[in-house]
Each structure stands twice: as C-alpha cells, then as structure tokens.
Design goal:
By secondary structure, the chain is α/β, with parallel strands linked by helices. It has a single domain (7-234), classed as 3-Layer(aba) Sandwich (Rossmann fold). It has helices at 15-24, 57-71, 129-136, 162-170, 181-191, 209-234, and strands at 8-12, 26-33, 36-43, 46-52, 75-84, 94-102, 125-126, 145-152, 176-178, 195-203. The protein is globular, with a radius of gyration of 17 Å. The structure holds adenine.
Length: 239
C-alpha cells in the first residue's frame, strides 16, 4: 500500500496523544482493522500513517506490527506522555528513547537479568541515531529535551510503595516510565525498522501521578508533537 511513498508511522496510545497530529494533517484515507483506525495523511510535507493503538504493550505490539506489514513505513515514531523517574525532569520536559527496557519482564528466577526476554539476546532496545539526533535539536521554549532510558510495563506507576519500585531507578536506571515504548521498540527492532519514542513528562510517577496525569495530559502532549514535527520536517530516509 504505502511502500512507494516512504511513509512514516506515528503511533500514540490515547486520543489526546494523537489529536494534534490529526488536526494538522491532510487526510487521505482511513482504514478500520479490529477496532483500530489507521489514518493515512500528509503531515508537514511527509506521507504518514497516524494511529491510536490503545494503552499497554499488547495493543502497541499488535498495532505496530500491522502498521509495518500493511504500510511499510521507513520509520516509526511513538508519541505521548510518561511519568518521570529522573528527579531532574519537570512536567513538560521531553524524554527521547536512547534506550528502552520492558521493566515488567522478570524471569530472574530462571537466571535471566530483569528485562531480558528469556532465551534471546533482547533486553535493551536502541532508537535510531538519526531520528534521535534530529529530535534532540528541537527548540522547545523553556522545556528540556533529554535522550535517556524509557522503561515500559503494563502498570501505571505511582511509587506509593517506594521499595516495590526501587528497581526502576536503582537497577534499571530509568529516566521515564510508560506503557508502550518498549513494545514498539521490540517490534521495530525485530522488523529492522528505525524507531524513536518521544515522551513528554505528565507526572512524576509518585503519589500525585494520577491527578497530574489527568491534569497535564492534554497540555503537555503538545511538546511531543513539536518534537515530531521537527522530525517530519528534517528526516531523510536512507533507504
Ligand atoms: N504514563 C504517564 N505517566 C505514567 C506513569 N506514572 N506510569 C506509567 N505510565 C505512565
């Protein structure tokens, strides 16, 4: 379908994370598949497929594989919000996935390091360097952009029990935490598709995370959008 057009896939997990993209795009065609809507659209001079995956690793993996198989993107960008684990991050700052680990993969009982997908070499997934470089150069007003480690798992983390979650910072050295990035990273890595996860901090993954998340989600998701706009304007695919 879009293979000749050098399409870029843009995935968010919730309406608020893709709203800006749909609003600014020139729609071409939408296709429904298993309750998921894929929007083929022009955006900042590029051909894109914009899709809301739904929350969590299973939805993210399913939608990402479908996107790759049907639309043949030259790159996949995940855009959305995350909780901060790094205390130097403020709400509204952006974290890019230099690396991603799925923190909820824990087969230590069989001797595998936390995050390792058992019986594989897969643990730490690296984003595409060209995408990282362009994203990092975005001008974001007063907010910071860092390239760091994003942790992914099927839990909304509030650090209510500090000891229970200490491994996120002390062992896995996470800068931000969310629920889809590591899954997108695994699917893209196995398919050999360049990817990047772009996350704006909506909360501090602490006791106030739930209220901050609801309060800041629609506002801060725009910072990820600004970074992705810069990516679309400047990315030249090497293939
Ligand atoms: N996404 C945004 N905030 C989050 C949190 N605290 N835990 C998991 N995913 C998140």
């Amino acid at each position: 379908m879009g293979r000749h057009k050098k399409t870029i896939g843009i995935i968010g997990s919730m309406d608020a994370e893709i709203a800006q993209y749909l609003k600014n795009s020139e729609p071409e065609r939408t296709t429904d598949w298993n309750g998921i809507t894929f929007h083929e659209a022009g955006l900042f001079g590029k051909s894109t497929v914009i899709v809301k995956s739904g929350v969590g690793k299973v939805f993210a993996a399913m939608v990402c594989e479908r996107l790759i198989d049907i639309y043949g993107p030259v790159a996949v960008v995940f855009t959305g919000v995350a909780g901060a684990l790094n205390s130097e991050l403020d709400i509204g700052d952006v974290v890019l996935s230099k690396t991603c680990i799925q923190h909820d993969v824990d087969v230590q009982a069989l001797g595998f390091m936390r995050g390792t997908i058992p019986y594989t070499e897969l643990r730490e997934f690296k984003a595409d360097e060209k995408l990282l470089e362009i994203a990092q150069c975005t001008k974001l007003g007063s907010k910071k952009i860092i390239a760091g480690r994003i942790l992914t798992g099927d839990q909304f983390i509030t650090k209510k029990e500090m000891n229970e979650h200490k491994y996120l910072t002390d062992e896995l050295h996470g800068d931000a935490i969310e629920m889809e990035g590591g899954s997108i990273a695994q699917v893209c890595t196995l398919n050999k598709i360049p990817f990047i996860i772009v996350r704006t901090v909506s909360d501090r993954a602490d006791g106030t995370a739930a209220s901050d998340f609801n309060k800041f989600l629609p506002v801060v998701a725009r910072n990820s959008f600004d970074v992705v706009r810069n990516l679309l304007l400047n990315y030249r695919d090497g293939r």
